[in-house]
Amino acid sequence: MEILVLEGNIAEVREHNRRLTGRTPGEAYADVLQKLDPLVRCEILCPADRDDVGLDHLARYRGVVITGSALNAYQDIPPVQRQVKLALQIFESGLPFFGSCWGLQVAVVAAGGEVIRNERGREVGYSRAVQLTEAGRGHPMHVGRPQVFDTPAVHSDHVSRLPENAVVTAFNEVSEVQALEIRHGNGVFWGVQYHPEFSLRDIAATLRRYGPRLIKEEGSFQTVDELETYARNLEILEDMPDRKDIAWQYALGADLLDPSRRQVEIRNWLDHCRREALRNAA
Fold first, then answer.
1. CA dist 59 → 12, 82, 190, 256 (Å)
2. Which of 24, 27, 92, 134 allows an S-S link to 14, with CB 3.0 to 4.6 Å?
């Protein structure tokens, strides 16, 4: 099954992430998809850089994923405009469409909604106490999720106005839209404001990437050493998930520690892609 992974970041950010983690966000996302289903084959493209994806190119895939990004959906700049335009093409193609964080925001803007800076501040590391709505409890994207859960996250923007034909499936105290479905044109988008693709090691890299801002501006950590200790402990926990002392200290439960629980929405979306492929072949 061919899946197109659209890396949301510009080249500078991609390479910075590679220096921190050894891979770009798009490469990391493709790894998760292929571990969840070894029959998945991924192509990674970077539409922030140039217009190189069209409907003819999209026709070879069974689904499209947009990763997270350091961009802001309300910026009137080419790297954002290109991705909003492409999201419209994906909707028109009718392909199963999924996005994490930035991916959700791009789909919302493309379908006519609005994204703004969240005045409640940044969620970094985790979204806590995310709750499924009534629609979310019955939605195939969330099969296997409990009513309330924690999940990896990093974002300072959120959806302020829904597009038409959008249904919110999850929320928390920081953002009224933590997950949704959008029906637009010929397509259906499933998306989450959080990052089910993130490992604990990815969270550690995210903390380091935002380090100066988290210390000087947002007060999440007092010193660089404090932040680095936290990040190192997350990496230890990634390699040694039985370290209950670290998990207890940081209040990390199975929703965050167990990949099969972290990645629920992505696994369910891949199942959706397979069902759609069979339906279209019938």
1. 29, 19, 19, 35
2. 24
Distance between CA atoms of residues 50 and 83, nearest Å: 10
pLDDT in tens, 156-193: 899 999 999 999 999 999 999 999 999 999 999 999 99
Q: Which domain holds residue 9?
A: 2-197+263-281
Least Cα distance to 8 among 26, 29, 22, 20 occurs for 26
Q: Are residues 217 and 193 in the same domain?
A: no
Q: What is the pLDDT of residue 17?
A: 87
135 CB-near residues (< 8 Å, 6+ apart): 167, 168, 169, 181
**Residues, the chain:** 282
Number of structural domains found in the chain? 2
Identify the DSSP state of 107. H
184 among known catalytic residues: no
139 has catalytic annotation: no
pLDDT value for 270: 97
Q: Vertex 90, ends 88 and 93: CA angle to 5°?
A: 115
Neighbour-count burial of 20, counting CB atoms closer than 10 A to its CB (0-12 exposed, 13-18 middle, 19+ buried): middle
Is pTM beyond 0.90 here?
yes
Q: Are residues 163 and 230 in the same domain?
A: no
Please enumerate in sequence order all residues whose Cβ is within 8 A of that of 122, keeping only pairs 6 or more positions apart, or say none.
154, 155, 156, 218
Mark whether 273 is an active-site residue. Answer: no
Say which of 139, 142, 155, 195 is annotated catalytic: 195
Do 218 and 125 sit in the same domain of this protein? no
Q: How far out from the chain centre does Cα 50 lie? A: 22
Which one of the listed residues 42, 197, 265, 273 is annotated catalytic?
Answer: 197
Q: Which of 101, 142, 181, 265 is catalytic?
A: 101
Q: Are 195 and 162 in contact (CB under 8 A)?
A: no
How far from 260 is each of 68, 145, 255, CA to CA, in Å?
A: 20, 11, 9
